Amino acid sequence: MNSILQQDLNDFENILEKAKQQGIEFLNNLDTISTSNKATTDPNQMLNEFGLGSLETLKEFNERLAPLMVSSPGPRYLGFVTGGSTPASIAGDWLASIYDQNTQAIKAQGGASALIEFETINLLLQLLALPDTFLGGFVTGATMSNFTCLGVARQWFGKQSGKDFAKEGISETIHILTATPHSSSVKCLSMLGIGSQNYTVVKTIEGNREAIDVIDLEEKIKQLNGKPFILISSAGTVNTADFDDFTAIGKLREKYNFWWHIDAAFGGFAAVSDKFKHLVEGWEGADSITIDCHKWLNVPYESAFYLIKKEHVSLQIETFQNSNAPYLGNPLENFNYLNVLPENSRRLRALPAWFSLKAYGKEGYKDIIENSTALALHFGNALIEAEGFELMAPIRLNNVCFTLKGNHNQENVSEFLARLNDKGKVFMTPTVYQNRKGIRASFVNWRTTEHDIKIIIEEMKETLLDLDI
Ligand SMILES: *Cc1c(COP(=O)(O)O)cnc(C)c1O
Known about the structure:
Layout: H1 3-10, H2 12-28, H3 54-65, H4 87-99, H5 114-127, E1 134-139, H6 142-159, H7 165-168, E2 176-178, H8 183-191, E3 200-201, H9 214-223, E4 229-234, H10 246-253, E5 258-263, E6 288-292, E7 304-309, H11 313-320, H12 350-386, E8 389-391, E9 399-404, H13 413-422, E10 429-433, E11 436-442, H14 450-466
Parallel strand pairs: 2-3, 2-4, 4-5, 5-6
Antiparallel strand pairs: 1-7, 6-7, 8-9, 9-11, 10-11
The chain binds pyridoxal-5'-phosphate.
Pyridoxal-5'-phosphate (PLP) binds near residues 141, 184, 263 and 266.
Cofactor: pyridoxal 5'-phosphate
Protein name: Pyridoxal phosphate-dependent decarboxylase family protein
Family: Belongs to the group II decarboxylase family.
């Protein structure tokens, strides 16, 4: 063994202890660590001939690279839809690295850690009040979940005319209907060879809505003259957290032949609260659903899962099977994740979610969801009181889409946000909604409190003054 490796092996406990201390310090100071920074790295770093050993490497990391770390698991990081990490999920995440399993099979001499993944999916189905007619698995994020689901949808589409697209390639136009797809779904159409511009945009409901207009949807379906299609629907659009009407879509399924996919990356968690579960009513009728865990479940990146109806498992295997040999036996008995999703080797990605679900239960998650949604409303009210701002859409769940008051201020929105983010107390994302520049604040972090909103509003008022708006 290399001598430096040997030395590290002897000193393992001390190394992990130092890393732990450092982690605790970061987490204990999330409140004061900046949400933005301007640190850079040295692009000419050379690889050492001889290693430094872990402790020296940690020192170098702290000197040069740790300053790049922003308070993204902190309470005022409202950009994108960034969840934090619960204590239990961090413990689970550490252990996933330490156990370092290759999570593929549920029955194998080389390890059966996929049973833990099955168990976790089952807990998630209970949390979201979904039936066990779905089979699920973990992937890195909602983008890969959409990819997995739409990959199977693509195979389904080919089968409607007796073709095997997975084997033969795509030989006919695949019809996709969608109203407000997330950019990642459009990216998936590109990655799947369907084409990022090859989808038909269905109207949204009149007024300040991003949800699909079911009447226009039926019109567009009729124009297809009985051809099959794939519907990409939304449970929580990023700008305004709007939801398609799943009960109405479910009724259309009785009349028309389509694959129904729901992108519920964060919005699916509406199911956890009695106050919001009506938003996802009827979603169990879908063929496939995408849900992120690194958002509202508050587990560390990278974590999401897909749910695909068990009845489609053969299509799923045709799409992702790792060899050309025919699949032997009952796929659910000899189940192996490597045949049903993009990755072959996989970490035990379910473990952080398993820890967190066990540690906090239904009630813990209901509290997180209802705290986030209450804070979104609180922030919306505080914005109006602060003057100088206007909401761009009603606050339906946890995302607040707003802008500077008045059209004359449209030209100041980018500068305002850049300055606000620069100050490092809060981070939000720019957006465009109904052709106007806006800002999005997303509440999903379990740590955020009313006190944070107070700090954020003060920072925003100060930034208005700085810019003389
Ligand atoms: C965040 C998000 C995605 C993409 O998720 P990643 O985890 O970043 O891959 C897809 N759809 C919706 C609705 C989202 O909010």
